[in-house]
Amino acid sequence: MQKKHFYLANKIAETRKFKVRSQGGESKIPQRNREEHADFIKGQYEKVINDALGLQDMLTGPEETVADGVYLDVDVVKGLIPKSLDTKNGVQILKVSEEETDIVTIYVKKEKRDWLPDKVDKYIHEETITGRPKYEDLIAPINDILPADIKSLYEPYNTFEGLPQKTPLLFELWINKRYDYSIDVISQTLDEQNIECNIENRLQFDDVDVFLIKTTKETLDTLPTYLGYIEGIRRYHQPSILTETHETNREWNALLRDEISFIDGSLRVGILDSGVNNAHELLSPILPDDKMDSAIGVLDNIDHGDHGTGMAGLALLGDLTELAYRSGMNLNISHSLASVKIIENGHETDSDFYGSVIEEGIDKAQDMGAVIDCMAVTDEDTFNNSPTSSSAALDESIYHGGACDRLVLVSAGNIETSDVDYNNYLDSCKASAILSPSQAWNALTVGAYTEKAITSNRDQHPLAAPGGISPLSRSTYSWVNANWRVKPEIVMEGGNVTYSPAYGVSTDPDLSVITTSQDLSQPLIDFNATSAATALATNLAAKIKEANPDLSVLSVRALLVHSAEWTSEMNKLGKAEDIMPLCGYGVPNEAVATFSSEKCATFVFENEIVPFIEGSSSNNIYNEMHYYDLPWPSELLEAMHDENVTMRITLSYYVKPAPGRGGRNNKYRYPSATLYFDIKKSTETEKEFLARCNKNDEEDNSSKSRNATKLWNVGIERRKNGTVQSDWITCTAQELAECGKIVVCPSCGWWKERKLKNVDNKIKYSLVVSIKSEQTEIYQAVETAIKNRIGITIANI
């Protein structure tokens, strides 16, 4: 029997004042020969400044707008970037490049050129009250000071030389928004340098604006001379979509038409793609013309590329193969669609900045009633784990000014069949990084796996075993620091490929899913890869929301991940650190995501936390954490003795992005603020647990309680770096009887450094907790515990 999840909103949470415990392990300031080091740093700084100003005087004419400062590269001991390299009023960090050391590109205004020499002099001659050299934390970590040029600002830095010298190309220009930021100065400078730019068509974030410009490498080479506060310059890649079209069985369409019933419902799903042919008889009942729109400059909203219509069919109906072979079993559809065209095959997108297209597309979809959006349009950018203008725009749109009322599922990107290594296809999956904008923190990124391994073509054999990663799916295995975030978070069916010596690697209709086609003469087509997977994940998200209409999209997102599991084939890949870059948390389970059951009881909490308050110094301090003492079926769990049970916890929230400055390379400066969870161990008291998590609850320094890192399957460090975090422990029921206490705590983010009156300073989140037993029915005991605590009775179906 299906059971309702226990939706408790914020009824259990206790707000407690929070002070973070020292994490330890920070790098130590290097010991330097004080006078020698000071003389070297001061000499290097003055030489670089003088050379840069001399070059500026030589290149600029009397009537030209010129930068009001110069760029420098500061070589710093890794992990010891001084905060005072960023003064906010004339000296500012623009970029951090992670090499063997940290290379920090800064901008120094001319009027502040004496900023560092003054501090170097005090470093030599003055000491703090503790006997340390003054400004030691600034001067000692610096290894060297070097001139910065266009290559310091260009990303990836080693590709600038390969650009054609005089060919006009599209670039993204990232400009830091300091206190004296002037859009007029930027516009005037670009005009004077003959750089094409539609100033109004820019992406705007709190800390940076991103402009789409058209110019040559030759002009870019001297741009830092004329324009200050450039954070980065990148090639702009126009988006592309990967589609495959094969012969299909037209007779299925008539069969399917009679099996589908459309029920009026309020839930609408947005398809952000190449448009949809809403004349298709399987789509027309739920996609009227007034729910079709475009975010690009084309004349119609219809799909001409056979991608958006395929996505719409899967998001609405699921894989039609399953329905086609279960004739006589009616499919009731209670959600509808909206379509926003964000790409057109053959359409020139020079004037369509993809980040702004994403923002407009999501806005238009929501205006038409969509709260869940599906997007399988990627560009060719990978940029390791750093944000692009597209992924940052996606994050900003999902955050939606703090409303956090949008769920966007985005594809990880596809591997071309020609790039699949047929000897060991996982090698090509590992080598192919996910494509922008799928690295977005707030989006739920979907990769592909497959259960399809039987083909009618005897001459070709499938590469992936059932339950394995699809050979067409990209991963984060090649990210420099794969422990940074879990991407993709989930995987869905994306089809398999075959290999034969005669034909090489190819897709196969037998190993694909079936969906609607924009070509009405052949109304069904086979479809595959991460596009198909993303559309199917969207279909599941809609089912979760339909079954649980009171839940926010943050909880829908959480339940998709919370219900996911690794297949036996995925478990063969090794430990979590080997599995997760390829398939995240695994394959969502529809039954577990939509409902609880007698042996699996799920709590859902929705709350908001204020992470920071103003402190006595320039930085803010931590404010509060939430403590959940759950209505726990302790007596039943104790009576179950050694029966194995599993407890799973998932935390889902959104961040406001800061893609500028150090945020592109620093997981603590891109998000506004971060959250993490922890649970009480069976072997510690409540006081020990709270003291371990919160310095404000510490009664003395004698507590030896530590986090039970070995209990978790994913691991504390790996899970906590994303905005959807999930982990689980399996233990005896008697042990779990003591584990019904959870904390949700804030952690680092750029809000901590900002004046709180200028930021939202509030994080909405969803916390999902479940207990799963192997033999004993547990749901009724949980319901009784909740009723005894807060008087809520859950209506079941």
Automatic annotation (TrEMBL):
The active site is at D273 (charge relay system), H307 (charge relay system), S531 (charge relay system). The keyword Cytoplasm does not apply. InterPro entries: Peptidase_S8/S53_dom, Peptidase_S8/S53_dom_sf, Peptidase_S8_subtilisin-like, Y4bN_pept_dom. Keywords: Hydrolase, Protease, Serine protease. Residues 268-571 form the Peptidase S8/S53 domain. PROSITE patterns: SUBTILASE. Pfam families: Peptidase_S8 (PF00082). Belongs to the peptidase S8 family. This is Subtilisin proteinase. It comes from Prevotella herbatica. The lineage of its organism: Bacteria, Pseudomonadati, Bacteroidota, Bacteroidia, Bacteroidales.
